[in-house]
């Protein structure tokens, strides 16, 4: 590319999440959250799935979120490094339990508000636009214990009070908001996605979709609240994206892929279109699901988002004969291995063209601006003897995906910006590892939390700085 196709004002940046970066898990009034009870190691997956009930921490287990990379105490240093790269947007989340430690209080924790006020002010000092997620895979544990989390309608009230508090408090500092991170992940990881724990004999899908209804109502109400506080506020939904390909041209495989895409897009259908999709009634009937609603819910859902944001790491494959024996074990979202593309160290498909396919699918479906708010390559980065991380594999991955965004812009799709995931190395949400690194900035920590936490720019740091400075015209 000699001439950029990226529009003037296109936002370039990176993302972290509070629970994977901040640490300081009980400091200055913060309460215990769901992610704080998810351990590192072999028990981690069953806790995330809601199969191993955890309401507390145990002395004999290691919890990566408790210390993480200590962004809470390093944020000024970290934001300065992002500014050196030329970031114009920085995505992070607010820890709900840092603002309302139990989740159901009337009065917020002033120390929590001050931290985020200082953080967003620091971003603005460097002309970096904060993009803030209100709920990024964390729910105050008190709400799980006392109310059953999102299965309980009372959560709508608690979340709206929390959201209103934040949006009013940070008015003028934050204009881009996301309600829920990867809202569709509740289907695949119910506890980490929405704080859900199942009772024996329960219809799990009934619990999940009822909880989803409450999240969708809350999201629509928060969209309305944000626009009332400031009409300039931009509110987005957030999807764990990636199309399903039919495993073959067999009609049954094509239908299986269509159904998997619908399962994935169900939540965004509601948030972007303002009503339950036409296929939902049959789906609920066949799964023996009965959604309990309240009068006025249909009207509430008409408060649709301003833009559709999504993560993209990989495409997926589906067939009519999918079974547990032939599925890829690399990701919570079930998929068949795709023989035509390569995979990462952790078995995730590497499919840049799949990003263009996903973006065209989303825009064709919703006709709203898109925002890619997570994309990146998890890899085991090693420093050489000169103290440098030569992560050419990451540069190659990001370059290929950014080129497909350029193609999508040429396709006529309005795209707000590009945000790489884990711009600073952080704790992996899936495995709890530090060794699964995504960042432009190396953090000296191992999988058990040992290390100096020293920050060191990688080779990709300097490459991305050049990409941003050229507004995407210089990718080599």
From TrEMBL:
Signal peptide: none annotated. Belongs to the glycosyl hydrolase 1 family. InterPro entries: GH, GH_1_N_CS, Glyco_hydro_1, Glyco_hydro_1_AS. Its EC number is 3.2.1.86. Transmembrane segments: none annotated. This is 6-phospho-beta-glucosidase. The gene is ascB. SUPFAM superfamilies: (Trans)glycosidases. GO terms for molecular function: 6-phospho-beta-glucosidase activity. PANTHER family: 6-PHOSPHO-BETA-GLUCOSIDASE ASCB-RELATED, GLYCOSYL HYDROLASE. The active site is at 374 (nucleophile). Keywords: Glycosidase, Hydrolase.
């Amino acid at each position: 590319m000699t001439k950029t196709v990226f529009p003037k004002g296109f936002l370039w940046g990176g993302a972290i999440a509070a629970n994977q970066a901040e640490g300081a898990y009980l400091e200055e009034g913060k309460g215990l959250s769901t992610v704080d009870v998810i351990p590192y190691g072999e028990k981690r997956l069953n806790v995330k799935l809601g199969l191993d009930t955890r309401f507390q921490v145990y002395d004999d287990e290691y919890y990566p979120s408790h210390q993480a990379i200590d962004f809470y105490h390093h944020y000024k240093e970290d934001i300065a490094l992002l500014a050196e790269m030329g970031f114009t947007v920085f995505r992070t989340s607010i820890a709900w339990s840092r603002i309302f430690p139990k989740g159901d209080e009337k009065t917020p924790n002033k120390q929590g508000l001050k931290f985020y006020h200082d953080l967003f002010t620091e971003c603005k000092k460097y002309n970096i636009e904060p993009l803030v997620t209100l709920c990024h895979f964390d729910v105050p544990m008190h709400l799980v214990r006392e109310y059953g989390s999102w299965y309980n309608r009372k959560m709508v009230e608690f979340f709206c009070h929390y959201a209103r508090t934040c949006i009013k408090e940070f008015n003028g500092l934050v204009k881009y908001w996301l309600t829920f991170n990867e809202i569709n992940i509740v289907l695949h990881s119910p506890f980490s996605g929405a704080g859900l724990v199942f009772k024996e004999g329960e219809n799990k899908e009934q619990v999940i979709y009822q909880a989803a209804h409450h999240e969708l109502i809350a999201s629509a109400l928060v969209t309305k609240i944000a626009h009332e506080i400031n009409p300039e506020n931009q509110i987005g939904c957030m999807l764990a994206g990636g199309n399903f390909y039919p495993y073959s041209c067999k009609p049954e495989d094509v239908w299986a892929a269509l159904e998997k895409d619908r399962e994935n897009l169900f939540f965004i259908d509601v948030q972007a279109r303002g009503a339950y999709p036409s296929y939902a009634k049959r789906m609920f009937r066949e799964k023996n699901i009965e959604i309990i609603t309240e009068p006025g819910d249909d009207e509430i859902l008409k408060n649709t988002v301003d833009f559709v944001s999504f993560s993209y790491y990989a495409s997926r494959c589906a067939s009519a004969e999918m079974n547990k024996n032939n599925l890829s074990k690399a990701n919570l979202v079930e998929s068949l291995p795709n023989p035509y593309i390569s995979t990462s160290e952790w078995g995730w498909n590497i499919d840049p063209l799949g990003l263009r396919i996903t973006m065209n699918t989303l825009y064709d479906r919703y006709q709203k601006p898109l925002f890619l708010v997570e994309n990146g390559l998890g890899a085991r980065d090693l420093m050489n003897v000169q103290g440098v991380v030569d992560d050419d594999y990451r540069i190659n991955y990001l370059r290929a995906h950014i080129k497909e965004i350029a193609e999508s812009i040429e396709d006529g799709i309005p795209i707000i910006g590009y945000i790489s995931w884990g711009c600073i190395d952080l704790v992996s949400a899936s495995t709890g590892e530090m060794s699964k690194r995504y960042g432009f900035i190396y953090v000296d920590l191992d999988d058990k939390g040992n290390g100096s936490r020293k920050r060191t720019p990688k080779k990709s740091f300097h490459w991305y700085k050049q990409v941003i400075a050229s507004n995407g015209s210089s990718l080599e």
